[in-house]
Design a protein that fits this description.
single chain; alpha/beta; Rossmann fold; 16 helices; 15% strand; globular
């Protein structure tokens, strides 16, 4: 009799197998590199000095996460090595005295550098430590993860945070999810620190100092994410058509990745719905201005929801977000529903194929019903702790932890 394995278990086993094979491959590869370095005079061991603090960013867009922390560390006279994979990372132009930036665009060189780091603490938004290419260095004392957005931490690929020593979180449900995974997988307990969200603190400051918009026609921002499950891929230009039929001013802001990965589809949409007095296409690097101008946001499962609802205090309209969880950490703890599923209905209306033609009524309801204003505040309180103090708390933690690690080594 053939054995049956359900899709979820099969996906999990496949992920585990890939992880084991990947780990074995890179262990052999690192051994080869180390041997080659030693045969070359041992330069690998002498060229890399030990750092107190290292930040690793795999993309330039995470500078917004790290900049407030770098600024606070610089104020306190601390030095940081910032390793980035992006040649146009804004960190490269930063002039903080204590910040030293390395850009390593080549992936093989990048992971070799990371896997042989000597440091007390490494801070990163990147999941998957010690799962694939990025291995824990034996000369790094402590790895700390900081999320790059509000919301849940179980939508990383499987084992995303398992091998970090500490996680900086911003909502109790995040800590509870991590503890549930640790118990299920028999993992040692990570240090969990209620830190807040430094980059959102910065956005809140910008919002408070921004000039009021003043009188304007009702403005709708359509800002979907990208990929096969995203709004444009599923409904094409239908959503734009329905929004234009409302008579409101429409701003369409595709995800930056769409201009690269979905260029053909976007070109077709932009030709079919060209700019006019009613419709504008937006691709600004910084989304603050366009979020400030809009009265309501229409999206799918983009993280821009949180910025719009919690900082600009405006309602949203969201599409179906029933993810296939097979490859995510959330699959392991399905008895704990995703926080996102409970948050979205409180901060906005759900858009479906059946009610898309009535989107004007949905917009008007979201903008006038106090239920959504109260829901936004409740959801904000659940996922954004220590508002306004995130960078200070993170910096305090990093400095105190580094001192603790140094004191322990001296004993």
């Amino acid at each position: 009799m053939l054995l049956y394995i359900d899709p979820g278990t099969g996906s999990m086993l496949f992920t585990v197998l890939i992880g084991v094979l990947g780990a074995a491959f890179y262990a052999v590869r690192m051994l080869f590199i180390k041997l080659r370095f030693k045969l070359g005079g041992g330069k690998a061991d002498t060229a890399l000095k030990s750092e107190s603090f290292v930040i690793f960013s795999d993309d330039k867009r995470y500078w917004k996460v790290f900049e407030p922390i770098c600024r606070e560390m610089d104020k306190r006279g601390k030095e940081i090595l910032y390793i980035t994979a992006s040649p146009d990372d804004p960190a490269l132009k930063c002039e903080y005295k204590g910040l030293r930036v390395e850009c390593i665009e080549n992936k093989n060189k990048l992971f070799t550098r990371l896997n042989y780091l000597r440091a007390d603490i490494v801070l990163s938004t990147t999941p998957g430590l010690d799962v694939y290419q990025w291995k824990r260095s034996k000369d790094v004392k402590y790895y700390v993860h900081i999320p790059h957005a509000a919301g849940g931490l179980t939508m990383y690929r499987m084992f995303g945070l398992d091998y970090y020593d500490a996680v900086l979180y911003s909502g109790d449900f995040q800590a509870e999810d991590i503890r549930a995974l640790e118990k299920l997988r028999n993992l040692p307990a990570k240090e969990l620190v209620e830190a807040g969200i430094p980059y959102m603190d910065e956005m809140a400051k910008a919002y408070e100092s921004a000039e009021p918009i003043g009188e304007h026609e009702r403005t709708v921002l359509l800002a979907p994410t990208w990929g096969p499950s995203a709004l444009f891929a599923v409904s094409g230009g239908k959503i734009i058509e329905h929004l234009l039929n409302t008579g409101y001013h429409i701003i369409v802001r595709p995800h930056p990745q769409s201009f690269t990965s979905e260029k053909e589809m976007l070109d077709k949409l932009m030709a079919e719905y060209p700019e006019s007095e009613q419709l504008e296409w937006n691709s600004d690097t910084d989304n603050f201005n366009v979020l400030h101008r809009a009265d309501i946001l229409v999206s799918d499962f983009s993280g821009v929801f949180y910025d719009f609802a919690f900082i600009h205090n405006k309602p949203i309209i969201y599409t179906d977000v029933n993810f296939n969880l097979d490859v995510y950490d959330a699959w392991w703890i399905q008895d704990r529903p995703l926080w996102l599923y409970s948050a979205l209905p409180r901060i906005g209306c759900k858009l479906t194929p059946d009610n898309m033609s009535n989107i004007k009524e949905l917009i008007d309801e979201c903008l006038t019903d106090e239920y959504y204003a109260e829901g936004r505040q409740a959801a904000k309180n659940e996922t954004w702790a220590n508002i306004g103090r995130g960078a200070e708390i993170v910096t305090d933690y990093l400095i105190n932890k580094q001192k603790e690690l140094s004191d322990k080594e001296e004993k």
